[in-house]
Amino acid sequence: MTASRTTYSTVAIAFHWVIAIMLVSMVFYGWWMEDLRANISGPEDFAGVQAAYNWHKTAGITILILSLARLAWRFTHPAPPLPAHMKTWEKGLARFTHIAFYAVMIGAPLGGWVTASATNFPSRLFNIEGFDLPRLPVPQTEQMYELASTLHGAGGWVILILLALHAGAALKHHFIDRDGVLQRMIPGLNTPPQTPRD
Questions:
Q1: 3-state SS class at 165
Q2: What are the pLDDT digits (tens) for 58-72?
Q3: What value, to the nearest 5°, has the Cα angle with vertex 17 and ends 15 and 21?
Q4: Is 17 strand, coil or helix?
């Protein structure tokens, strides 16, 4: 990507939207899983909950791999420059939000992996017997599980908060600043004419 590019590359855009959709879906899926576990009434229900958790773990590892690949792509393909009119604090906040997103995109799946490793239950990727996620070297204790589970759950709220900030900023740039920032991630978007600035 050249310095003069005004939009992200097709690969970067694909990473952005696929990971975003998966992250948000995983938050709500995780809450649904917790409700499912709370209503176990027999062996069949337990088997269903195990299958649901295995799909959650499979998606989490997929997000981790995609996020690491996206980070590698980002290091080798610089983002298009932000509009020159943006204030220093706005650029700083944008940078902080992006760094925080990378931290949670990588940290939340790792936290889930630690949580799974702290239990005796197998983590079967794609629910395939024998295709188990390796355990991380963490203590298999109730205290470790509770700590990791709490932090992993908090990651879901962090994702939603960052999403609200990110989406709100994007909409502000599109409808108020009219500076084409949103068009960097949605090429071809009809950006309103930029209003004169004092």
A1: helix
A2: 999 999 999 999 999
A3: 120
A4: helix
Query: In the chain, where are the structural domains located?
Result: 10-184
Distance CA 56, CA 193 (A): 43
The whole-number pLDDT of residue 125 equals 97
Burial of residue 143 (CB within 10 Å: 0-12, 13-18, 19+) is: exposed
pTM for this structure?
0.90
Q: Could you report the per-residue pLDDT of 80-97, keeping only the tens digit for each?
A: 988 888 999 999 999 999
Secondary structure in 3-state letters for 72-92? HHHHHCCCCCCCCCCCHHHHH
Least Cα distance to 67 among 55, 59, 78 occurs for 59
193 — pLDDT class (breaks 50, 70, 90): low
**CA distances (Å), 86 to each of 1, 93, 99, 191, 197, in order?**
22, 11, 19, 17, 11
* Phi, psi dihedrals of residue 132, rounded to the nearest 5°: -95, 145
Determine the pLDDT at residue 191: 65
Record: fold of 10-184: Fumarate Reductase Cytochrome B subunit (1.20.950)
End-to-end CA distance of the chain: 32
Mean pLDDT value of segment 115-125: 95
- The whole-angstrom separation of Cα 88 and Cα 82 is 11
